[in-house]
Amino acid sequence: MLDILFFTALIVCFVAVVTQFLALAFRKEGLKKAAWLVNAATFALITAYMIARGVTAKRLPLSNQFEFAVAFAWGVALLSMILRRTVEEPWLGTIMAAASFLVLSFAALQPRQVSELMPALRSGWFGFHIGSAVMSYAAFMTAACFAVRYLLLVRRPDADEERLFRLDYYAYRLTAFGFLMLTVTILTGAIWAEQAWSAFWTWDPKETWALITWLIYAAYLHLRLIKKWQGKRMAVFSVVGIVCVLFTFIGVNALFAGLHSYK
Questions:
Q1: Distance CA 92, CA 174 (A)
Q2: What is the pLDDT of residues 145-163, one digit of tens each?
Q3: Do 46 and 244 form a contact (C-beta atoms < 8 A)?
Q4: Is there a contact between 234 and 171 (Cβ–Cβ < 8 Å)?
Q5: I want to staple 130 with a disulfide (CB 3.0 to 4.6 A). Which of 14, 30, 62, 121 is the partner?
Q6: Exposed (0-12), middle (13-18) or buried (19+): which is 222, by Cβ within 10 Å?
Q7: Beta-carbon count within 10 A of 87 CB
Q8: DSSP E strand boundaries for the chain
């Protein structure tokens, strides 16, 4: 039953990408409404799946690579739903639906069996630590979507300066939120690590790359707030940042063994 719900969400997410693209291409009101409804259905299905899996497992569904990927896709879909109300950018639903679909597709390649929590994960910090990581990754992914759109538009000789400013501003605000959530992730992880392994920091590969990611986004905010960098340079920085986020999420588990190697 869980697999049926998951793959239904994956298929509907793909339909959302196609519908959003068609709405952009043909600019029909009917297609726009349909795209919104399918996008909302995707979010509802992912939410239903996470709830069902949590009930089945009798815990938060955030304990392994598959569950984190599903939650990551859910976070991107959530931000898409929220931003649709405040950002008038017709492409936003398309690129964010595509991001959710790619993350869900990665999840589909992971083992999906429901298992008990490892002893190291049985802590009150579990939800805070991993939940904040989910939202930080989702915020960084969304910021990167804005940055990519900025880089595509800024090359046009007739680029709308107000539109570019808006894209740059939202990328910055999302990055700031993601940085806050990543800071919470690292701090709660350090406290949890001291309780579980008697050390606040062990230079585990996941910890190390989380710190590298944090430093990249700290540099982004420093350049933005202190050096007053804006526009194209910040957009490029955001794209570099999401590459680091994705390596921390996927590459570290695939290439390195460590205390965070939960499959």
A1: 14
A2: 999 989 988 888 887 888 8
A3: no
A4: yes
A5: 62
A6: exposed
A7: 14
A8: none
